[in-house]
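Q: Sequence in, structure out?
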Amino acid sequence: MRKDNALPARRRGLPKSDYSLDSPPHHGDDHSTGGLDISENEANCSPALRAPDRSAFPDNSSRRNDCLTLRMPRAEDGPRVSKLIALSPPLDVNSGYCNLLQCTDFRDTCILAERGSALLGWISAYRPPSSPEQIFIWQVAVDPAARGQNLARNMLDALIARPAVATATALTTTITEENEASWALFRAFARRHGATLTRSPRFDRQAHFAGAHDTEWEARISPLPALSK
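A: Exactly. Output:
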């Protein structure tokens, strides 16, 4: 077992093959996890958020919408969220009922991204009852067609700016050692906001998963940026 390590906001010893959820997918790869101030329920049409290829986002309506919307989920979003997660390995596939609860009971701390009728991104999160000063990021998923547009970054920033997260002082998540896409995303988040990322093993491969799942390392980022206050 590796000893706990503290990682400064700057990168230290990242593999040469490092890439993030916001990078275009490599050939044969399909990776997901998981500083623009974008409010949910409001379209942002900046050049960085426009679709590079409109044909990649089919829309059966007579009028296409190239603007990206970030918003809270609703109950009817549950099946679409389940489908996106299923298409986003190495994320664990939750039950449809679990995703439905996230879209309803935990909607204040979850966020989805859509362009027109296409669901392109999803973050599930919650405030742990035993550690209410934290916001725990459960899953981050980005449709392969939407990568290279800073979507995961934008969703994270919009999420921590919500009133439901205003009193949180730290962001936590768990990541397996080999999931470089997720490590890159959260290292970049810490760097961008001048915060510190520390890591320690939380769920051990043998002790907690009986050898069926890699050890999950907890990443803790604090303090959270002023935009969440």
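Residues 7 and 220 are 10 Å apart (CA to CA).
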